[in-house]
Design a protein that fits this description.
single chain; alpha+beta; Hypothetical Oxidoreductase Yiak, Chain: A, domain 1; Ribosomal Protein S8, Chain: A, domain 1; 2 domains; 7-stranded mixed β-sheet; 3-stranded antiparallel β-sheet; 10 helices
Length: 360
């Protein structure tokens, strides 16, 4: 029988570990909050399995654990933030808080971030805005593992996009997705479990379809959402490109093939066209468009309409974006969070090295 762990237990473990490598307590809290939120929402690819990668980057002196995060450009409704090469969650949360603050004053706020690193799940930041009666948008580029349609060159990241929209009596609409059929972390999980992936997720170094989740280590690539041109991969390519451009160009971060790798076993790139990895955040007050009560009533009706769509044969009901994660969150808060044996082993290796009590 697998062990399950409470949110509070895993959060305390994670906070302690990141404090051990020199993070201030408040920063360690943010890192833990974002990682455990991913576990709660059933997205382990962006949860605690990332800890060993993050610690590896710290040990390779590629992360600043005591950053000075600053605004380097600003207008009434926009800003660019320099993350000072911190863990992405630290600058990411501050950037979304700034976007929310600007939206309160002007109706909408838009913040670009440069000189950052992996920031966890994009949905975390979009939901921050929704909690303030705002539409939240968050996106990030990522290290290049994705080949554009008809290419073998790894020029894009999985480049996730999240949008959160508040409702009234219904739960918040949360769409949080990569612009590829699968994220790198989910490939890693498949590989750890010894499983294959469906055709249409990855390709080998010649551009031929593959079902090997470890193909990236042999020069292969993830493909854009759609899988191939006949199934619309050019549209997934467009989406990934849009996220890359907004995440990099406004703030001055690296784009496309120049985004620095987020794992220590890959060397830093020789060429740079900006600073670090980039994010982009937006917050829009719903009452900037119509009274908030009217907006929420219409959003409730939208959600109820789609919930009442006729299910396909063999399906119980139709879900809306955010439902699966919300259901898993409720379950994990009640029953606890399970960790894969390989992830547990990695966490305990790091914990042992830094004198943190092991997870049993």
């Amino acid at each position: 029988m697998e062990n399950k762990y409470s949110y509070d237990f895993l959060k305390k473990f994670t906070v302690t570990l990141f404090e051990k490598i020199g993070c201030p307590h408040e920063d360690a809290l943010v890192i833990a909050e974002v990682l455990i939120e991913a576990e709660l929402r059933g997205i382990p690819s962006h949860g605690l399995m990332r800890v060993s990668d993050y610690i590896g980057l710290f040990e390779a002196k590629r992360i600043n654990v005591k950053p000075n995060i600053t605004k380097v450009h600003e207008t009434l409704s926009t800003a660019t933030v320099d993350g000072d090469n911190s863990f992405g969650m630290i600058g990411g949360k501050k950037a979304m808080q700034l976007a929310i603050s600007k939206a309160k004053a002007t109706g909408s706020g838009w913040v670009a971030m440069k000189n950052s690193n992996h920031f966890g799940i994009a949905g975390y930041y979009a939901m921050m805005a929704a909690e303030n009666d705002m539409i939240g948008i968050a996106m990030t580029n990522a290290n290049p593992l994705v080949a554009p349609t008809w290419s073998t060159s790894r020029f894009l990241g999985t480049n996730p996009l999240a949008v959160a929209v508040p409702a009234g009596s219904e739960p918040t609409f949360v769409a949080d997705f990569a612009t590829t059929p699968i994220a790198r972390g989910k490939l890693a999980i498949k590989e750890k479990k010894g499983e294959t992936v469906p055709i249409g997720f990855v390709q080998d170094k010649t551009g031929a379809p593959s079902n090997d989740p470890g193909i990236l280590k042999d020069g292969g690539a993830i493909v854009p959402l759609g899988g191939d041109y006949e199934h619309g991969s050019h549209k997934g390519y467009c989406m990934g490109a849009i996220v890359d451009i907004l995440s990099a160009i406004p703030g001055g971060a690296n784009f496309g093939p120049f985004v620095p790798p987020q794992v220590s076993y890959l060397p830093l790139l020789e060429k740079s066209v900006g600073q670090g990895l980039g994010h982009f955040f937006g917050a829009m007050r719903i009452d900037a468009f119509r009274p908030a009560s009217e907006f929420k009533a219409s959003m409730d009706e939208w959600i109820q309409t789609f919930r009442n769509a006729k299910p396909a044969e063999g399906q119980d009901k139709v879900l809306i974006p955010g439902d699966p994660e919300r259901i898993k969150t409720e379950k994990h808060k009640k029953e606890g969070i399970s960790l894969m044996p390989s992830v547990l082993e990695d966490l305990n290796k790091v914990a042992s090295k830094y004198g943190v009590e092991l997870i049993s």
